Amino acid sequence: MSTGPMSDGENYRPDWGSLRGHRVPDWFRDAKLGIWSHWGPQSAARSGDWYARHLYGPYDGTEEFEQERAGRQTAAHRKRYGHPSRFGHKDLCGLWRAEKFDPEALMDRFRRTGARYFVSMAAHCDNFDLWDSAHQPWNAVNVGPRSDIVARWEAAARGAGLRFGVSMHAGSWTWRWLDAAFAADTEGPAAGVPYDGHLTAGDGRGLWWEGLDPRALYGRPRRPGEPPDPEFIDDFYARLRDVTTRHRPELVYLDDSRLPFDDGSVCPAAPPSGRGLEFLADYYNRVPEGVVSIKTVPGRDRGAVLLDVERQQLGDTDPEPWQYDTSIGDWFYCDGYRYKTPDDIVHLLVDTVSKNGCLLLNVPQLPDGTLDDATGAVLDSLGGWVERCGEAVFGTRPWARYGEGPTRVTGERARESALAYTSRDIRFTRAGDALYAFLMAWPDGHDRTVRIRSLGRAAGLLHAPPRRVTLLGASAPARWTVRADALEVTLPERPPTPFVQVLRIDIGEPGADEAGADEAGRTAT
């Protein structure tokens, strides 16, 4: 597959007209399932996402959807670690040690789960770099683990045959997030005492962080709403180029509505910055089969950047490839958090793939780098389903319809939820002459007949009648009938897998050795 002007020996230029010649590569369209590691200093608190910001609360400007978590994390931090004038985000960086991190063992588990690509955190909104950063002294080699986390993830992923990606959240979010470190309590016994964002390198003399400057981690003192400085923007893009040059990831996840600091970004510069276009051109010239994702993409730019949809389901098939990202639990490890079930995840995967997307699934890790038993059980169950039904997922493409049935996402997109699927809910994919029908729920009662309306003769969607129908994982052949209004398939007494069941429907002329088997399953045409 051509990836744009590089095939003619030309370079991409830092403008949309040139970058629109790029295309999302086929490796991504085939991959369907990726595993993502949200893991870093914030994991040390075992209190979930946004901890590096919320530990400085309470403060004005907390987003409404974050207020409950902000209050919980603020109270927990002060009870466990003390006031943020003395113990702040910088100190968590020293606590996070990753002492049991075994990326090879983890990657083998992810591969057995079915992952075809792996994404390492490069830097979260907390501004701590997880590689041997040339521009950020607050990094995992200098502080905490004393180890290049990204390099170790990369070696493990490539060794296991997975494509490798990095996610970069520092940038716009960091500028907005860490302004909280420059505030102070407005009431109580510590009212007016500045938080640790006001500390300088000189304040570290004799302390564990001696020789490091907190300003390199937090940025300059600022108030909420101030536009980012050019120096801050330059630093972000220097670090982004550093990590992508060192590790040549095939996927770069940018956690922003548009290119960081550009018009439409969560934190646009004044005037908007064009550095993102420079990065895209440079990156695609270095990694022609790479892909960069952002979260708001006009239709005309869908080759230049990949649409990423966070914890939201699309209502219909997208004509362009896209990525759906979610987590088994909270983004960072959180004690007591309710995890998704394997059933939830399989349903999300199937619905996403049927609509031309890939699922990027975050796996919350304990601070020491291991997985808890509940996470391991989810991965093992997902891997068992993939072993039986993966042919209907990997390397497939959308069919004429993504599915049928009463249960669907309302509107163009909606917040993810565990939908109450019925036996009438079907999702489809295709690969060559094989059409796959995913049964989102097993029929209730004694009627074990599934009726697929889209495959009846009257629908006119098949170029030829089915010649064989197989229930993946079942030991006995399926019995099936084509009627005007539906393809009817009689299912066995028990489902062959614990989750979504899959019918493989072969269409086209059978080979000589297949003809007898084809007739055995057919009861009418």
From TrEMBL:
Organism name: Streptomyces lonegramiae
SMART domains: Alpha_L_fucos (SM00812)
Gene3D superfamilies per record: Glycosidases, Golgi alpha-mannosidase II
Glycoside hydrolase family 29 N-terminal domain ranges (all copies): 8-391
InterPro entries: Fucosidase_C, GH, Glyco_hydro_29, Glyco_hydro_29_N, Glyco_hydro_b
Record lineage: Bacteria, Bacillati, Actinomycetota, Actinomycetes, Kitasatosporales
Annotated family: Belongs to the glycosyl hydrolase 29 family.
All residue ranges annotated as the Alpha-L-fucosidase C-terminal domain in the record: 423-497
Domain of life of the native organism: Bacteria
EC class: hydrolase
Listed name of the protein: alpha-L-fucosidase
Keyword Signal in record: yes
UniProt entry keywords in alphabetical sequence: Glycosidase, Hydrolase, Signal
Enzyme Commission identifier(s): 3.2.1.51
